[in-house]
Recover the amino acids of this structure.
C-alpha cells in the first residue's frame, strides 16, 4: 500500500490492501482486507461499504498496516483479530489455542443429534467431558445447547484453559463448566477427569509428525503444535478409547473428530476397547471426519 501522506478513504484503502494481498499470494485477498479493516475501525464488513467515504485516520492506518504486514508473514487472520466464529458465535482465539474449524462444528452437531436421538438428554443432569478443550468451543456450545448440562473441560495446557474460561464467561456458561488441567496420556487421567459421564467428546491432536513439514505455513508456524500433532496421529485415540470404559456410564457415548485419512484405524481402536454401535459421519466434502460409539459398561479403574 502507498505510504504517502495522502488521505485514505475506506473504499480506496480496501482496494489497495486487496491488491497488495493478491500480489503477495494471500487467498481470499478481499475478504482478508475487509476483516482486518473492519476490526481496526470497529465496524462490520457491511458498514465498510455503507461508510465507503469515511476517512481513515493516521493511528488507524498505522494499525491496519501493521496487521497487513503480520498477515503477509503468515499470521492467521483469526489471531490478528482475536476472534473466530464457531457455530454462529464469537470465540476468543490467540496463539495459545487451536483455531476452531468447521469440522469441529460438525462434531458438535453430530453429538447433539445422536445423543439427543438416544435419549441421553432426557436425564435431569447430563454429564459431559470435553478432552483437549483448547478454546473451549465444544464445551461452551454443548453447555449452551443441552438443558441441565454439567460440563467438565480438560486440557494439558493451562494457557488454553485460560482462553476457554474467558470464552465460557463471554457466553454466560462459566458456572456450568468445570475446567481442569489434565493429560489424557497419564495413567491417572480418570482420577483427574472424573468418571461415569454421559458423553465424552474430543478433537484430539491427530496430525502425524511425518506430515508436519507439509502443513500450511499459517498452521505450522503459528498454531500450537501440542494441539495438532503426535508421533503417529493415533496416540490420543488409543488413550481416550482405553479410558472410555472408566469414563462413561453404561450406554454413554464417545465422540471423536478424525483426520481425513484416519477413520478405519480409529474404528479398529474403538472396537478393540469394546465400544459398540460405531457410527461414522462425513463432512460437507464427503470425507469421514466424525466417529461415535456407545460404551458397553462402566468398569471403573480400567
Amino acid at each position: 500500500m502507498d505510504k504517502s501522506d495522502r488521505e485514505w478513504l475506506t473504499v480506496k484503502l480496501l482496494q489497495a490492501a486487496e491488491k497488495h494481498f493478491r500480489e503477495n499470494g494471500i487467498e481470499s485477498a478481499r475478504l482478508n482486507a475487509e476483516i482486518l479493516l473492519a476490526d481496526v475501525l470497529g465496524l462490520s464488513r457491511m458498514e465498510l461499504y455503507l461508510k465507503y467515504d469515511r476517512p481513515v485516520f493516521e493511528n488507524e492506518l498505522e494499525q491496519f498496516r501493521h496487521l497487513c504486514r503480520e498477515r503477509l508473514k503468515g499470521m492467521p487472520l483469526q489471531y490478528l483479530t482475536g476472534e473466530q466464529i464457531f457455530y454462529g458465535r464469537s470465540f476468543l482465539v490467540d496463539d495459545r489455542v487451536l483455531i476452531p474449524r468447521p469440522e469441529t462444528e460438525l462434531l458438535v452437531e453430530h453429538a447433539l443429534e445422536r445423543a439427543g436421538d438416544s435419549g441421553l438428554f432426557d436425564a435431569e443432569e447430563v454429564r459431559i467431558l470435553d478432552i483437549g478443550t483448547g478454546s473451549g468451543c465444544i464445551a461452551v456450545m454443548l453447555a449452551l445447547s443441552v438443558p441441565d448440562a454439567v460440563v467438565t473441560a480438560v486440557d494439558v495446557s493451562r494457557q488454553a484453559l485460560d482462553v476457554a474460561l474467558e470464552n465460557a464467561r463471554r457466553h454466560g456458561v462459566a458456572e456450568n463448566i468445570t475446567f481442569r488441567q489434565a493429560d489424557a496420556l497419564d495413567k491417572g487421567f480418570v482420577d483427574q477427569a472424573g468418571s461415569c459421564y454421559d458423553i465424552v467428546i474430543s478433537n484430539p491432536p491427530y496430525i502425524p509428525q511425518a506430515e508436519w513439514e507439509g502443513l500450511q505455513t499459517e498452521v505450522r508456524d503459528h498454531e500450537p503444535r501440542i494441539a495438532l500433532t503426535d508421533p503417529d496421529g493415533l496416540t490420543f485415540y488409543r488413550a481416550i478409547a482405553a479410558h472410555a470404559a472408566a469414563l462413561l456410564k453404561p450406554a454413554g457415548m464417545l465422540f471423536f473428530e478424525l483426520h481425513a485419512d484416519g477413520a478405519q484405524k480409529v474404528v479398529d481402536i474403538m472396537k478393540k476397547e469394546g465400544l459398540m454401535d460405531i457410527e461414522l459421519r462425513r463432512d460437507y466434502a464427503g470425507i469421514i471426519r466424525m466417529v461415535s460409539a456407545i460404551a458397553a459398561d462402566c468398569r471403573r479403574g480400567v
